[in-house]
Design a protein that fits this description.
One of its GO terms (molecular function) is DNA binding. By secondary structure, the protein is α+β, with helices and mostly antiparallel strands. The protein has 9 helices and 7 strands, in the order αααββαββαααβββαα. It is elongated, with a radius of gyration of 24 Å.
Length: 247
C-alpha cells in the first residue's frame, strides 16, 4: 500500500493563516485568526511573528494584513502568466525573421529587458553593457523612449549618459531626439550597440503599458528585415492584447 506524501505541519499552518488573512475584508487580530484556522493562540502568535518578520504579513494596530513581499510575489506571478502567453508569439517572430527576439518594458522610470527568445540558429546578442545604460543604442530602447512623454523622456535621459559604445552610437541628445519622432512604428539600431549586429523594433501600445518587441540580426541582413517589419507589428499587437487580458 503506497504511503501518502510527507507534509510539514508548521508550513501548512502558516499557509492556512495567510489564506485566512487574504480572505478577510479588514485586518484580522491574532485571536480571530487562531479561531479561523483552529490553532492555539500561542502557536498563532509564533507563526504570525515569523510571517511578519519575513514580509509576508504586516502588523497594524487593529490586526494583520498581507505584506509587501506577498504582494510582490502575486505581481510576479501575474507577469509570468502573461509571459506564458507572449513567449509563443516571440518564438514565431524568431523563426520567421531568423533572429533572437526581445521583449522590453518601461517600469518605474527604467527600461527593462523582460524576456529573450533565441536558439542556436538565432543566438542572442552578447549584452556586454546593461540595458539601463544603453537604451539610446538599442532599437527597443529608442522604441520605448519615443513612447514617453517629454517630461518622462527628459527625466530618463538626465539620469542615463549617452555612452559611446561603437563608432555608430548616437551620443548627442539633439540627434537622438530627432530619431525619436512620435508616430513612428519601427525603430532600429545599426551597429550602435555592437559592431556586426543590427536590431529592429516595434512599439507595444496598450493602456498603462509602454513596451517594445525587437529582433536582432547580423548587420548584413538589416535591409531585408527593415524593409518589411510586418511580423514585428503583428506580434506587437498580439502582445498588447495579451497584456490587456492579463492586467
Amino acid at each position: 500500500m503506497a504511503s501518502g506524501p510527507t507534509l510539514i505541519a508548521s508550513v501548512q499552518r502558516a499557509l492556512h493563516l495567510l489564506d485566512a488573512v487574504a480572505s478577510g475584508e479588514r485586518p484580522a487580530t491574532a485571536k480571530e485568526l487562531a479561531r479561523a484556522v483552529g490553532l492555539p493562540l500561542p502557536t498563532t502568535y509564533h507563526l504570525l511573528r515569523t510571517l511578519v518578520h519575513e514580509g509576508y504579513l504586516r502588523k497594524l494596530e487593529d490586526g494583520y494584513t498581507l505584506g509587501e513581499r506577498l504582494t510582490a510575489l502575486t505581481q510576479r506571478g501575474s507577469m509570468l502568466t502573461v509571459l506564458s502567453r507572449v513567449r509563443p508569439i516571440m518564438r514565431a517572430v524568431r523563426d520567421e525573421l531568423r533572429g533572437a527576439c526581445y521583449l522590453s518594458l518601461y517600469s518605474h522610470g527604467e527600461i527593462k529587458l523582460v524576456d529573450i527568445v533565441d536558439s542556436p540558429e538565432a543566438p542572442r546578442v552578447d549584452l556586454w553593457v546593461g540595458v539601463h545604460e544603453a537604451a539610446h543604442a538599442t532599437a527597443f530602447g529608442k522604441c520605448i523612449l519615443s513612447g514617453l512623454d517629454a517630461e518622462a523622456r527628459r527625466d530618463y535621459l538626465s539620469r542615463h549618459r549617452l555612452t559611446d559604445l561603437t563608432p555608430y552610437t548616437i551620443t548627442d541628445v539633439r540627434v537622438l531626439e530627432q530619431r525619436l519622432a512620435p508616430g513612428r512604428d519601427v525603430f532600429d539600431d545599426r551597429e550602435e550597440y555592437l559592431l556586426g549586429t543590427a536590431c529592429v523594433a516595434s512599439p507595444i501600445r496598450a493602456p498603462g503599458l509602454i513596451g517594445a518587441i525587437a529582433v536582432s540580426i547580423p548587420a548584413r541582413r538589416y535591409a531585408s528585415v527593415a524593409a518589411d517589419p510586418t511580423p514585428l507589428h503583428r506580434a506587437a499587437r498580439r502582445i498588447a492584447r495579451a497584456f490587456a487580458i492579463g492586467s
